[in-house]
Amino acid sequence: MSYTSKLIEEAVNEIATLPGIGKKTALRLALFLLKNNPEHTERLANSLRRLRSQIQYCRQCHNIADAAVCSICANPHRDSGIICVVENLQDVIAIENTAQYKGKYHVLGGLISPIEGVGPEQLHIEHLLQRAQTEQLQEIIFALSTTIEGDTTTFYITKKLKDFPIKLSSIARGVAVGTELEYTDEMTLARSIKERIVYH
Amino acid sequence: MSYTSKLIEEAVNEIATLPGIGKKTALRLALFLLKNNPEHTERLANSLRRLRSQIQYCRQCHNIADAAVCSICANPHRDSGIICVVENLQDVIAIENTAQYKGKYHVLGGLISPIEGVGPEQLHIEHLLQRAQTEQLQEIIFALSTTIEGDTTTFYITKKLKDFPIKLSSIARGVAVGTELEYTDEMTLARSIKERIVYH
User: What is the pTM of this model?
Assistant: First the structure.
């Protein structure tokens, strides 16, 4: 591509380093910024810079935070007796959007994966065990993906926690809401029968 | 969406102002930047800021430029006897990528569109007529889209230029390379027959 301008070439190359954005899209975005007023670009650039430089990780749950402790851990109205164990920040946001969960979180920062060489020590598991000892917990809910990595991680942690007087649970696995039975894979269907909900 | 962090919420909202990028994608990009090292975000933010603050528009052809005159107009090896009239910057880049054109350009900055209330005076047409008078031009090639707006604009300018001793031409309209005749629309096919190339 010959952009006839070093400035735009630079910008396009930088924008194209973002995931899922190719040179063509990057160019479209750059030209969009050029059409718009300079303040818009200023705001965008500043917010990115601020995000990267000022963001912190909650020292209690490892969620992203604007302070040393995240807004969820700092919230006195949340039940500190329950911890929901998730893989990453997106999962926290996803669960928060359901507005169904009122406890605290613990972000592992990944899943145990021998293939990718991720061991328990690279994750915030040790800290979770500390929390189990120090905090007055009634329950720990595991909300990890139903993959080999997810199940391995859940298994590893639950084994470590089995001697604690804490209820251990996992989010329900079953047929997704709105999907038809005939299109559900056997594994899911089998699990949804095994872990059926008893009405009466 | 509850992001549990003002910083990330701000960033997501800013990124989502870009065309074709929704909140979900914006969040993915923001978290990608967080995973990456701070320098990466710095480079991105700076390149955007530099682009917007330092970019200029060539006073000869209205193409984007790093200086008062763009790299094409400043290039002594380009034929200054030919001007290719295009709608916008993307078109310049597209034509440059063919490496077939060695003349100069004139960027109109849009097309005449009564519906959108864009008249000749909003475009760089007057300046093109000046160039036709002052510069020693042999030919002006019109490379505008085959739309009502494009054809209107071409018609308007060619009428203004008809008394100049300058050859006026338009890029060829016809069946696109690699497409099968049966799938080509009648208009295009009709035009490709009317404007057929004579071999012998």
Answer: 0.79
